[in-house]
């Protein structure tokens, strides 16, 4: 099978609308301002660094936040369910916003929303205010989540695997860094969890800066205006129609896969440090263990997309990641403290289902417009599926008095995750499936 990078490179079409911030000029020849492309790379990497610290920094200090705001275990479960809820609610809006304002402008606004939410939420003084400010930050994350594959497909059509790996690696790095250093930073700042959470707003504000030159050109990051509609669809070019994405079995399989892996990921980010702390692990070490889990994605998020684009089916990768997750949950149940580092590594490998899912989004559609719709559908539907997970884990934890039932639930969810992942990994495109149904 020809790799995604090769296939995409051979099918891309020239741009016919003059756009100074476009990779190609009006004649279809490579644009001479290479610095613009480099700026896009910098913007993508910085943005990816900010797509998870709002969540993992909170996970590292969840006990302190619960005490400071008087939260019960159930309320904390609601708090850990807010990220997927916001991703489902706001992610579906991203393609429409990108059509109107351009993907660069939307991501820039998203980074500003993250910065504002992170700066406000520690100082609201109530659980409701904390949730509302968190939702603002998560809204910015949601639209950026959906548009990252679109920006990659648009600007780097012949390097989908490599660029997906790069921003997935940056995302994992930001995730791990927030888990690892939030507790030490909090201690350095006098032990105030409020300042420990606030500092992450600075990184988000910095990420908005590289997008500003691109915002001036509203076409930046939009799909090519003259991409032909996919066979059998009403239209696949943004602004002229929509692909009937719900007719695709692969789109549904990918959405369910995305939802189940997101459930595992957000339970891990929200509760894993607490699992270790309940097993007698010190708070600082528990934060480091969570950081190890997140840090596994740094190298693997770069490697897995490159491997996946070279395989005829991504099913074997899905199964390997799922088995690692089963072993990790079994270890947390039997010996959470004694084998803590091993379980952290195994669950970190399992969490790399996320960059794999993003890679499959880019591979299962032929056009930039198709990728935008598939990304919005898979992520919004997937995050909707994942909403109950962290909440159910919190309720089970509070009412059972231990982690046996929550861990059994998480292990059980890995089985359907592997099944639908194999289906989503088959070599086909949503355009073809929508055309034949």
Describe this structure in words.
There is one protein chain. This protein is mainly α and 437 residues long. Helix content is 73%, strand content 0%. It has one domain: MFS general substrate transporter like domains (Growth Hormone, Chain: A). Helix 3 packs parallel to helix 13 and helix 5 packs antiparallel against helix 19. The longest helix is centred in the middle third of the chain and has 30 residues. The protein is globular.
Record field, number of beta strands: 0
In CATH terms, the superfamily is: MFS general substrate transporter like domains
Number of self-contained structural domains = 1
Largest sheet: none
Net shape: globular
CATH topology: Growth Hormone, Chain: A
How much is the radius of gyration in Å?
21 Å
Assign a percent range to the helix content. over 70%
**Are there runs of 5+ residues with pLDDT below 50, and where?**
1-32, 218-241
Oligomer state of the chains in this structure: single chain
Percent of sequence in beta strands: under 5%
Q: Key terms for this structure?
A:
437 residues, mainly alpha, Growth Hormone, Chain: A, 22 helices, 0% strand, globular, disordered N terminus
């Amino acid at each position: 099978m020809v790799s995604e990078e090769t296939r995409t490179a051979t099918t891309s079409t020239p741009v016919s609308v003059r756009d100074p911030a476009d990779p190609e000029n009006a004649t279809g020849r490579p644009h001479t301002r290479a610095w613009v492309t480099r700026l896009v790379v910098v913007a993508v990497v910085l943005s990816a660094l900010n797509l998870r610290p709002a969540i993992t920094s909170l996970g590292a200090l969840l006990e302190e936040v619960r005490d400071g705001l008087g939260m019960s275990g159930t309320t904390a479960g609601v708090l850990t369910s807010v990220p997927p809820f916001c991703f489902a609610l706001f992610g579906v809006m991203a393609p429409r916003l990108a059509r109107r304002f351009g993907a660069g402008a939307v991501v820039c606004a998203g980074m500003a929303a993250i910065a504002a939410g992170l700066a406000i939420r520690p100082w609201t003084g109530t659980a409701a205010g904390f949730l509302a400010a968190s939702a603002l930050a998560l809204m910015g994350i949601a639209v950026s989540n959906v548009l990252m594959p679109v920006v990659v497909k648009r600007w780097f059509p012949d390097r989908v695997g490599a660029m997906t790996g790069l921003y997935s690696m940056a995302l994992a790095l930001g995730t791990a860094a927030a888990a690892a250093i939030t507790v030490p930073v909090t201690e350095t700042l006098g032990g105030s969890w409020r300042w420990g959470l606030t500092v992450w707003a600075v990184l988000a504000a910095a990420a908005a800066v590289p997008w500003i030159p691109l915002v001036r050109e509203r076409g930046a990051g939009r799909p090519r205006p003259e991409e032909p509609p996919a066979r059998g669809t009403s239209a696949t070019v943004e602004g002229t129609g929509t692909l009937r994405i719900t007719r695709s079995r692969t789109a549904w399989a990918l959405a369910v896969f995305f939802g189940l892996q997101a459930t595992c990921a957000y339970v891990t980010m929200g509760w894993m440090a607490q699992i270790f702390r309940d097993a007698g692990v010190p708070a600082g070490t528990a934060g480091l263990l969570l950081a190890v889990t997140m840090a596994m994605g740094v190298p693997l998020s770069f490697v897995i997309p490159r491997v996946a684009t070279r395989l005829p089916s991504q099913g074997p990768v899905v199964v390997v990641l799922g088995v690692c997750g089963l072993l990790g949950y079994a270890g947390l149940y039997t010996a959470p403290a004694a084998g803590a580092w091993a379980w952290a590594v195994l669950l970190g490998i399992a969490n790399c289902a996320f960059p794999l899912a993003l890679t499959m989004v880019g591979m299962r559609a032929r056009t930039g417009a198709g990728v935008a719709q598939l990304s919005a559908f898979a992520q919004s539907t997937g995050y909707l599926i994942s909403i109950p997970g962290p909440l159910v884990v919190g309720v089970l934890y509070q009412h059972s008095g231990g982690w046996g039932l929550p861990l059994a639930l998480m292990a059980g969810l890995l089985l359907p995750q592997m099944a639908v992942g194999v289906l989503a990994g088959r070599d086909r495109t949503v355009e073809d499936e929508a055309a034949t149904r």
